[in-house]
From TrEMBL, chain A:
PROSITE patterns: PTS_EIIA_TYPE_2, PTS_EIIA_TYPE_2_HIS. Residues 5-149 form the PTS EIIA type-2 domain. GO terms for biological process: phosphoenolpyruvate-dependent sugar phosphotransferase system. GO terms for molecular function: protein-N(PI)-phosphohistidine-sugar phosphotransferase activity. Pfam families: PTS_EIIA_2. GO terms for cellular component: membrane. This is PTS fructose transporter subunit IIA. Keywords: Phosphoprotein, Phosphotransferase system, Sugar transport, Transferase, Transport.
From TrEMBL, chain B:
Pfam families: PTS_IIB. Residues 1-102 form the PTS EIIB type-2 domain. The keyword Lipid metabolism does not apply. This is PTS fructose transporter subunit IIB.
């Protein structure tokens, strides 16, 4: 199991259409549901918003990392949306957000330890400004995967 | 500087690891050596060794929650900051620490 195996095309949308946080979270949550990662969109979103209320998930450089632990998660994964314009988000640098990584993590994470390690690897890449620049310029899933390869 | 650090965020999923990478890259850019332990949902990774701690000039705790093992740093110069500060301005943080140490 490698990072590339976590990057699932079914839950990645690099031409996402959304005008605000709610629309992006709904769009990505629906993708997670359709691909079998979560069993309920609304309860999953509720847990994501709980984490949103606890602190800023906009890490700067147009990147946001909404995440949370939810009982509705049946498979650990990460849904990704890229927008062609900034949307409002609470961020550390005051800019908007164009690239959203939605982490889906179950409350029972012991069984999913390998997946959690891979999510940590992905998070680390988000701390690398050059890698983030390449992600922002990615137009295909292959482009995006190449950043993590 | 020789730095050891511990990163730990509220949910232990993302900020912990972003902070780790930011600290490592900023240290490399500024010519410092660093070891970063993470305490996340998956437990402790890259646990600091007693030697690394003994050699360190400074301990950075980039933590939003209570962490385990702080007794290891007794007697060391220790700076505690939230992970958000490390994610936002890692180089500035290290520069500030360095100037404080050189006072």
């Amino acid at each position: 199991m490698q990072v590339l195996d976590v990057l699932d095309e079914r839950i990645i949308d690099l031409n996402a259409q959304a005008n605000n946080k709610e629309e992006v979270l709904t769009l990505l949550s629906k993708k997670l549901k359709d691909a079998g990662y979560i069993d309920d969109v609304e309860s999953f979103k509720k847990d994501i918003y709980l984490r949103e209320s606890e602190g800023t998930t906009g890490i700067g450089n147009y990147i946001a990392i909404p995440h949370g632990k939810s009982d509705s998660v049946t498979q650990v994964g990460i849904a990704i949306a890229k927008l062609d314009h900034e949307i409002e988000w609470e961020t550390l640098d005051g800019k908007g957000v164009k690239l959203i990584f939605l982490f889906a993590v179950s409350n029972n994470h012991e069984y999913a330890r390998n997946h959690m390690l891979l999510l940590a690897d992905i998070a680390r890449k988000l701390g690398n400004d050059e890698a983030v620049e390449r992600m922002l310029n990615a137009t295909t899933v292959e482009d995006l995967k190449s950043v993590f390869a | 500087m020789k730095i050891v650090a511990v990163a730990a965020c509220t949910s232990g999923i993302a900020h912990t690891y972003i902070a780790k990478e930011k600290l490592i890259r900023a240290s490399e850019a500024l010519g410092h050596s660093i070891h970063v332990e993470t305490q996340g949902t998956i437990g402790t990774e890259d646990e600091l060794t007693p030697e690394q701690i003994a050699e360190a000039d400074v301990v950075i705790l980039a933590v939003d929650i209570a962490i385990t093992g702080t007794e290891r740093f007794e007697g060391k110069k220790t700076i505690k900051v939230p992970t958000s500060l490390v994610v936002k301005a890692p180089k500035q943080l290290l520069q500030k620490i360095e100037s404080e140490l050189n006072k």
